[in-house]
Give the backbone structure.
Amino acid sequence: MLFTTNVGIDLGTSSVLVYVKGKGIVLKEPSVVAVRKGEMITVEAVGEEASRMVGRTPANLETIFPLEGGVISDYTYCEKMLRYYMQKAVGRPFFRPVVAVCTPCSITQVERMAIVKTLEQVGARSVHLIEEPLAAALGAGIDVEKPGGCMVVDVGGGTTDIAVISMGKTIVSDSIRIAGNNFDRDIIAYMKKKYSLHIGQKTAEQIKIEIGQADHGEISRQMEVMGRHAISGLPFKVSVTGGEICDTLSESVEQLSDAVMGVLEKTPPQLSSDIASRGILMTGGGSLLRGLDRVIAAKTGMDTFVAEDAVLSVAIGTGRFVDSLNGKKSIFSRKNTR
Ligand SMILES: Nc1ncnc2c1ncn2[C@@H]1O[C@H](COP(=O)(O)OP(=O)(O)OP(=O)(O)O)[C@@H](O)[C@H]1O
Ligand SMILES: [Mg+2]
């Protein structure tokens, strides 16, 4: 194992982050591939470059998101994307790297195997899986091996993973497909219904980040939004407020907080009291929606806080996990580790 590179990958629906032992996080790029269609289908761009093409491609180009709900939905392009990222992050290592990848809690055995096989194809010597909330807690600096319970809510792009962790194991968990991308879809639907304005996913995401809010406890921000008018077909501008976005997102936000309650209700009482004293940790890009922590705190009655590096926690934790694999067997290793 002496010269082996250890690599941790946060394989997310929205973005891929790669951690390399001794270097930290060396890559953070969107999970997207642009392909040129013709007699032969060829990869035109991957990551940032492909992301700039989303919603702007000519007929012979297509942008593909090879992950959906945190699992691989397009194996061919997921493999191409990961091959590119591995090459970019570690070059051509002398020995094949040991790779750890995080997965949503509710992943099936088939989906799990698909991730393992894909990474083996791109050159991994062995692949180790860790559940996203466990990685998030590790990344946020929580000593997950202790018997005290802690609750993690990881709001990503495709899934929200909710888990209660104790002694390095997930005790109760749930994974729902309500996360950041849903918020974008809600905004697209609202703009069309209220203003007859067609906007793309990128604009919806920009609205969410700039003025989005999950509760009315914020000063309502305002933003000019440009789109295509549904009737005239011409570019058209409207002014939107954070208050409107809050109402638009309320159903998704409620489903998300209901799922957190659902996990708490299934949590053994001893661990519930640990969570009551330690609070709920939120991670993932979606947890940055203003006021989402307040909504969950109000619903559960527990202190809720967003991790300092909310977007990086899972990747940092996956990195810590892969670092712990050298020599000794980590308590987080899963049976299906190959
Ligand atoms: N400041 C922000 N406010 C609100 N949402 C944000 C903010 N920054 C990022 N997001 C959203 O976070 C989501 C991406 O989060 P993250 O990178 O954690 O997802 P992921 O790990 O790729 O997805 P998953 O874990 O579901 O597979 C996107 O929907 C993005 O729009
Ligand atoms: Mg994630």
Remarks:
- The chain has ten helices and 18 strands.
- The radius of gyration is 21 Å.
- The chain has four domains: 1-30+67-140+311-331, 32-65, 142-178+250-306, 185-248.
- The domain at 1-30+67-140+311-331 is CATH 3.30.420.40 (Nucleotidyltransferase; domain 5).
